[in-house]
Amino acid sequence: MTRVSADVPAGPAPEEPAAGGAGAPRSSPLRKLVRVAFLVVALGFGTWAVASQWDEVRAGFALLSWPALLLSLVAVVAALGGGMMTWRALLADLGSPLPLRPAAKVFFVGQLGKYIPGSVWPVLAQMEMGRALGVPRTRSAAAFFLTMPVQLGSGLLVSAVTLLAALPGSAAPYAWVFLLVPVLAVAFEPRVVNAVIGFGLRRLGRLPLERPLTRRGMLTALGWAVLGWSAYGLHLAAVLYELGPSGPSVAVFSIGAFALSWCLGIMTFVVPAGAGVREVAMVAVLAPVLDRGSAITAALCSRIVIVLGDLVCAGAAGLAARRRAVPGRGGSGPGEAAGEAAGEGGAAPGDGGAGPERGRPGGEAV
């Protein structure tokens, strides 16, 4: 009979294995098959989003120059990077700092799930891929669901400020939406967020998060989100300059117009990636500076450039992570990637992710 020492305290086991090479779960053939199927389905819906409106898209692109489209795509890639850093900062603040390349792969590949009808696919994909890096599922889910209100609140605030600065009358029809700003500001208080997360985990019968969200982590995430909205505005401005409006105020207006239309679109969770809703909202928001035909062209071009940006980011992140994992190049496999957080600077600047608490159970990156 094995004797159990009385000095070992009894308690619940960690929800997931700790991050690192030995503890991280290995991919089974079934898991790989599921990931491939997920990518095929997501890419199929993304292709359908382009093909279903191809005639309109081709007509719209014919009005734009290739330099403008390239600039718009570069700005979209930068904006998507801001979204990834927002999520990464929250994940690090919750206790799982990830190095840049593995974090980019988890985020960008997972985000392809937004093109599949239903709102659960991105979070399920991120939970599964994060688990291979030793990130507990509950922590992945918490970071995902926190990213949405952070982007929504920052987007509404940015749109209110920029629309009022560029064209005051353009914000008046949407004053009711901006009433959510003070509500979300209260919700951003870490004590409120931690209480809500704790309540939800208790209701689900799960262990509480080992590390609560901090004000520093929330402010870091908000900073990245604001940078992301600025890049999205430049993406739309590159299109608008080709369709007629000019002047520095167009760039400021574009930031608010895109942020507001995105916020309206994200409120419709059952529509893949806000498809259709964001375009209708963008046409309405652009009405003060463009005629209806040009506004439709701008909205469709914006949609297609963003789809291309999603594909570019997912492909680049996947290749970068795979190159890192190739033996003989000084890289590591998926299970070891989380162990390099300190070497690549952890998460976003100022998130305080990699610190003396690395050794705590529950999936900390070490």
TrEMBL record:
Biased composition (Basic and acidic residues): 357-366
Entry keyword 4Fe-4S: no
Keywords associated with the record: Cell membrane, Membrane, Transmembrane, Transmembrane helix
Biased composition (Gly residues): 328-356
Protein's membrane topology: Multi-pass membrane protein
Region listing for Disordered, in residue ranges: 1-27, 325-366
Domain of life: Bacteria
The protein's name in its UniProt record: Lysylphosphatidylglycerol synthase domain-containing protein
Organism: Planomonospora corallina
